[in-house]
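4.2 Preliminary Data

To establish feasibility before requesting continued support, the project team ran the inverse folding procedure on a target of 260 residues. The structure was first converted into the token representation described in Section 3, and no sequence information of any kind was made available to the design step. The complete token record follows.
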């Protein structure tokens, strides 16, 4: 085996090596199957097999069938995640170029691949409230919803009144604004299950989808766009992100007591 170098970089420098490693990882385990898959020219496939084997990324057990080594499986997984991340960014480059993804915790920024297949719903000149209406429509549907909200939406009250299971984390500035605008004697909160934290993006998670609204690059809240992903993997990403904030957030009652 050759001296180990930067494995991912080594594989990606060659299209043939990349295609062969990914094919082997996906189950094309015979040389003939790889040749029949039109991954590269015949000589390039043979060269890639030799190079990947020398680098310790694939091996040929006694069965004479190619298989990834442990390192090869890791590299293939990283390449697949890179491709999925590229698909997320490439599906709507304008959105990702103009919105601040650093509003998300680093651990979740590196997992944007989990949002593959999502779409951006944006306002248009003829439908200026399109994104808002889509959010309102979806909030009205689920029985269980978890929300991170840097702004307040009256639909939260309606959700509570409808008996829905609602977990709501509001930005501290929202609570302060609501208190200032409340009439004397009015309840400071109409929704149970509220906690308070600091964040700059909005997100709604249900059992079926995640909706994400990132701030623009200047930090402004953007009501005109909404990123929506409906896969189980995306929903899991959103739920885990919400739980991070929920667990660290302050109970509403405690926040109100401390801020009096």
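Position-by-position output of the design step:
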């Amino acid at each position: 085996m050759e001296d180990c170098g930067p494995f991912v970089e080594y594989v990606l420098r060659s299209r043939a090596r990349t295609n062969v490693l990914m094919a082997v990882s996906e189950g094309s385990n015979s040389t003939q199957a790889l040749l029949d898959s039109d991954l590269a020219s015949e000589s390039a496939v043979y060269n890639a097999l030799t190079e990947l084997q020398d680098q310790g990324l694939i091996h040929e057990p006694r069965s004479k069938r190619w298989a990834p080594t442990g390192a090869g499986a890791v590299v293939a997984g990283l390449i697949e995640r890179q491709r999925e991340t590229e698909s997320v960014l490439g599906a709507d480059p304008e959105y990702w170029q103009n919105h601040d993804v650093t509003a998300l915790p680093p651990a979740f920024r590196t997992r944007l691949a989990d949002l593959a297949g999502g779409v951006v719903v944006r306002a248009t000149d003829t439908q200026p409230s399109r994104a808002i209406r889509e959010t309102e429509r979806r909030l009205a549907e689920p029985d269980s919803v978890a929300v991170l909200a840097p702004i307040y939406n009256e639909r939260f009250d309606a959700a509570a009144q409808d008996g829905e299971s609602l977990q709501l984390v509001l930005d501290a500035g929202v609570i302060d604004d609501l208190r200032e605008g409340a009439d004397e004697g009015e309840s400071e909160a109409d929704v149970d299950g509220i906690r308070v934290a600091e964040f700059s993006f909005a997100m709604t998670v249900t059992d079926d989808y995640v909706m994400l609204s990132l701030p623009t690059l200047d930090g402004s809240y953007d009501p005109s766009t909404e990123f929506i992903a409906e896969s189980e993997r995306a929903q899991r990403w959103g739920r885990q992100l919400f739980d991070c904030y929920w667990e660290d957030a302050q109970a509403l009652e405690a926040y109100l007591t401390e801020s009096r």
